[in-house]
Amino acid sequence: MSHINLASLEIGQVVGSTEFLLTRDSLVRYAGASGDFNQIHYRDDVAAAVGLPGVLAHGMLTMGAAVQVAVDWVGNAGAVVDYQVRFTKPVVVDPVDGAVLVVTGKVGEIDAENKIVRVDLEAVFADTKVLGKAQARVQL
Amino acid sequence: MVNPNVQGKKYPATDPYLVGREKIREFAHAVKSTNAMNLDVFAAQAAGYTDVIAPPTFAVVIQERSLATVLGDPAAEIDFSRVVHGDQRFIHARPIVAGDELVSELEVASVKSLGAHSMVTFETKIFDSSKELVCTAISTLVVRGDE
């Protein structure tokens, strides 16, 4: 059951928008939780040595945070039956200020028969979209 | 470059991964989830789950175990230091629940060349202890070649 009335939804309707502050602490926490200890996510010297503009957020952290907008809307993390993204731009995380990621979810497609709504997620860092084709299909 | 002959290659199932309740909570905090289903056993049970459920991207932890097998396979010739994550998808038959014992089986779905670069797509199927499919994780890695 869901609090969302499928019949009242419209394509393009905004379902939510959240601002995530990704700090170096966030990256260390994600590294530990996920087991992804690639040093480009916490060492400035390593990031510079491989030609990056700075320490980057894990793409999977951006992906994992972005989907929360869809989860918060539907109210159940288990309702996300299909979720995909393309990693198009890096999120550079300043050691002091971190990085602000603004994620907005909109209704992209409504499958009334199967009660599945596609939520299109736009993730913006420093005025740039960092995810492409970010789509979460939620089962109502 | 990636050895194109690994296209279609299947890797054996990983050892079972036991999904812990605190691991789910730790991962949920890390991806900034505030969803009660990820954190609160009673909320998850009220929604019909046996225990807390994992955030939608938690399956990456299981996928990673299969990917490590491929990256460690000399026949695949993948230089990890040149790898960039291109895209990722998770198709869930059901959410991952604390207490699940999961194994994953990976197949190299495709190897493509893009100029000096290679794009490798992996399809990892994650099964529970009843051999039921829980999630299909599809990941494309871009392996940078010499410019």
Number of helices of chain B: 4
Low-confidence stretches of chain B: none
Beta-sheet strand percentage of chain A?
A: 35-45%
> What's the total helix number of chain A?
4
**What is the CATH C-level name of chain B?**
Alpha Beta
Tell how many strands the DSSP assignment of chain A holds: 6
Major protein interface:
A-B, 35 and 35 residues
What average pLDDT do the residues of chain B reach?
94
Oligomer, anyone?
heterodimer
Counting helices, strands and paired strands, the structural category of chain A is: alpha+beta
CATH topology of chain B: Thiol Ester Dehydrase, Chain A
Rg over CA atoms of chain A? 16 Å
Give the C-alpha Rg of chain B: 17 Å
Detail the poorly predicted runs of chain A: none
Apparent shape of chain B: elongated
Main beta sheet of chain A: strand number and arrangement? 6 strands, antiparallel
Key features?
heterodimer, A: 140 residues, alpha+beta, Thiol Ester Dehydrase, Chain A, six-stranded antiparallel beta sheet, 6 strands, elongated, B: 147 residues, 22% helix
Write the layout of secondary structure elements.
The complex is a heterodimer of chains A (140) and B (147).
Chain A: E1 14-22, H1 24-34, H2 44-49, H3 59-66, H4 68-74, E2 80-87, E3 99-111, E4 116-125, E5 128-129, E6 131-139
Chain B: E1 10-11, E2 17-18, H1 21-30, H2 36-39, H3 41-46, H4 59-71, E3 83-92, E4 101-114, E5 117-127, E6 133-143
Antiparallel strand pairs in B: 1-4, 2-4, 3-6, 4-5, 5-6
